[in-house]
Design brief:
182 residues; mainly alpha; 9 helices
Length: 182
């Protein structure tokens, strides 16, 4: 769910929406639903990183592995142009996408710089695997179970921080229209 699409501007409500999206993301990873890797990848920063926040090292690691798992899954199920798929998951403009989450920021934080470097390196590795026709070895190198453990570890280590973010929703009782005539 997108705060902008729902026309939500209140910071508290945006944080509630982000938590709901995070819960949906995690549950989708552990119990696949109709949400695909593409949507999870597209909305990762919006879900994991609060407005004007920085992509932290642990989040960056999950994003890198998510992109890798998305590539592996797509190459197993489609005969699409694998290089095009790779460049859509690992685009050249990763830096600008991250910076767009922090208007006015002049540069990436060290954890974000490291993520961009690792993502582009992973892209080059996967590109070599395409050229060497060695894609069948990727699921063993980048195991799905390891990705699940990483997400589980992230949630358990950050549960208190995720759960304790201040949320104060104003009580708004329903005001029913008066239909009684008398």
């Amino acid at each position: 769910m997108s705060a902008s699409e729902l026309d939500i501007n209140d910071a508290t409500q945006i944080e509630v929406l982000r938590k709901a999206n995070l819960a949906t993301f995690v549950s989708t990873i552990f119990e696949p639903r109709e949400i695909g890797f593409s949507d999870l990848d597209t909305h990762f920063l919006e879900i994991f990183v609060p407005n004007n926040g920085r992509l932290l090292k642990a989040q960056a690691q999950i994003l890198l592995e998510l992109k890798t798992q998305a590539f592996i899954a797509a190459t197993r199920s489609k005969d699409s142009a694998k290089e095009d798929l790779l460049y859509s998951l690992f685009p050249d403009n990763l830096e600008s996408r991250i910076l767009a989450r922090r208007p006015g920021a002049r540069g990436l934080a060290p954890s974000e710089q490291e993520f961009v470097k690792r993502a582009l390196s992973r892209r080059e590795f996967l590109l070599a695997e395409i050229k060497n026709d060695n894609l069948d070895a990727l699921p063993e190198k980048y195991r799905w179970e390891d990705f699940l453990r990483e997400i589980s570890s992230y949630v358990s280590k950050n549960f208190d921080a995720i759960n304790s973010a201040t949320v104060s929703i104003k009580y708004r009782p329903w005001k029913l229209p008066s239909t009684h005539r008398g």
